[in-house]
């Protein structure tokens, strides 16, 4: 890769972080107050902010429990081992899916059996803080803020208090098997046309986790739907059953003609098996899938999601990071681990082994990241992504949204009726928590 192209990609990465904070320029409301500017790649983290790790002393006899998803467990074991070697603090990694950790900590934390350090997507932050589950990122606040993109820091800030230690930013995009389809389709209409000749003998043109609201949000948002108004902060303004969302749900329902299966059957593992065996041409997936596909030797590319009615596709985007449980017996040790696990060096490890896109400015600008053509497709989709709302009420959206989408897909439910019911469920759940 020539130097000018590398520079452009580095600048694109920085731009993406700003756009992640701002959200889509589509019919969703976009924030005008958030912009991110990464420091120049030549400015080291040590020059911009020193982490006074040596001044924070772990408690005597400290041991830690860290929760991590099963598919990322092996990588986190390496990080935990390195931390133990440096600080002489034993760390046990337990398998708990990242999106489930906040809910599990609500019960396990007070019982004294929860993790000391958790990892979760930023949309769970408001719920976690409101439930009193997290300690502030106070000791490492300055270094966390200086080293990471502004968007990622703001994602883990709630009511002007920083709680998290950002690790990665992400959205999903279109993975395509170049052997089966050399050029990615630009629109869903093209996908449907391609499926007419490709779908046979157990082959599928496209697959995604059908009713997982995280992935399905694109269908509702692109034509003009949204979760909450005022950039995701107004729980009283729900736009999941407006005219645009209903139109998108009709497109979603139409796609069953090219993916004739029950929603629950389109799992991550099923998709991976079909894609790697040459029976799936297009997969909607995220950067977390890149490393495994490379290991499988698949010749694949990544492109922005197909347009809907000529409109650029609006995906959900998010930030994942570490946080320290308020129930930990060893807060200093836990803070040291959260800091250690979120450094530039470890973010580059996550990228190389798992494909996670770094939130750390220097890691994001590292040639190992900017020289990868697969990253470009994710970055292009990031430009039109919309950050998941982080208010506590977001927790009431996932189940209601999935139930509505399942009804539309599996039971051929009228999209308007299903979405109206979902909004009613969200409103009732919101009211019950006030």
TrEMBL record:
Membrane-spanning segments: none
Low complexity: compositionally biased ranges: 29-51
Keywords: Cell membrane, Lipoprotein, Membrane, Signal, Sugar transport, Transport
Localization, UniProt: Cell membrane
GO molecular function term, any single one: carbohydrate transmembrane transporter activity
Biological process annotations from GO: maltodextrin transmembrane transport; maltose transport
UniProt topology in membrane: Lipid-anchor
Signal is among the record's keywords: yes
Gene3D superfamilies in the cross-refs: Periplasmic binding protein-like II
Secretion signal span: 1-18
InterPro entries, per database record: Maltose/Cyclodextrin-bd, SBP
One matching Pfam family: SBP_bac_8
GO CC aspect terms: ATP-binding cassette (ABC) transporter complex, substrate-binding subunit-containing
Main subcellular localisation: membrane
Region entry Disordered, spans: 28-56
Family named by the database record: Belongs to the bacterial solute-binding protein 1 family.
Name under which the protein is recorded: Maltodextrin-binding protein
Source organism (scientific name): Cohnella endophytica
């Amino acid at each position: 890769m020539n130097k000018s192209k590398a520079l452009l990609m580095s600048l694109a990465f920085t731009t993406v972080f700003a756009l992640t904070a701002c959200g889509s320029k589509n019919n969703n409301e976009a924030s005008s107050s958030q912009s991110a500017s990464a420091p120049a790649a030549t400015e080291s983290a040590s020059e911009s902010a020193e982490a006074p790790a040596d001044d924070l002393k772990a408690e005597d006899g400290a041991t830690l429990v860290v929760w991590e998803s099963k598919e990322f467990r092996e990588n986190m074991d390496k990080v935990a081992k390195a931390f133990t070697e440096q600080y002489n603090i034993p760390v046990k990694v337990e398998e708990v899916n990242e999106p489930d950790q906040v809910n599990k900590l609500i019960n396990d934390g007070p019982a004294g059996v929860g993790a000391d350090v958790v990892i979760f997507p930023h949309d769970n932050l408001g719920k976690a803080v409101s439930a009193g589950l997290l300690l502030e990122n106070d000791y490492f606040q300055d270094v966390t803020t200086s080293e990471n993109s502004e968007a990622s820091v703001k994602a883990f800030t709630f009511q002007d208090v920083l709680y998290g230690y950002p690790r990665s930013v992400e959205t999903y995009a279109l993975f395509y098997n170049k052997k089966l389809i050399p050029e990615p389709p630009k629109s869903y209409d093209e996908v449907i046309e391609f499926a007419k000749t490709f779908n046979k003998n157990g082959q599928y043109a496209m697959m995604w986790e059908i009713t997982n609201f995280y992935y399905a949000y694109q269908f509702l948002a692109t034509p003009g739907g949204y979760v909450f108004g005022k950039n995701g902060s107004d729980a009283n303004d729900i736009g999941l059953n407006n005219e645009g969302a209903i139109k998108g749900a009709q497109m979603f329902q139409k796609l069953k003609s090219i993916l004739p299966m029950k929603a629950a059957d389109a799992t991550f593992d099923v998709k991976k098996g079909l894609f790697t065996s040459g029976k799936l041409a297009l997969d909607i997936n995220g950067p977390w899938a890149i490393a495994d596909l490379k290991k499988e030797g698949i010749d694949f590319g990544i492109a922005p999601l197909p347009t809907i009615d000529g409109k650029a596709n609006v995906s959900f985007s998010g930030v994942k990071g570490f946080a320290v449980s308020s129930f930990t017996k060893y807060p200093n040790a836990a803070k040291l681990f959260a800091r250690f696990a979120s450094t530039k060096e470890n973010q580059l490890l996550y990228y190389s082994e798992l494909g996670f896109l770094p939130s750390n400015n220097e890691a994001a600008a590292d040639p190992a990241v900017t020289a990868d053509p697969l990253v470009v497709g994710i970055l292009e989709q990031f430009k039109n992504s919309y950050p998941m709302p982080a208010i506590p009420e977001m927790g009431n959206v996932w189940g209601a949204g999935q139930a509505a989408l399942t009804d539309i897909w599996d039971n051929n439910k009228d999209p308007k009726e299903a979405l109206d019911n979902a909004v009613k469920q969200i409103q009732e759940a919101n009211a019950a928590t006030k």
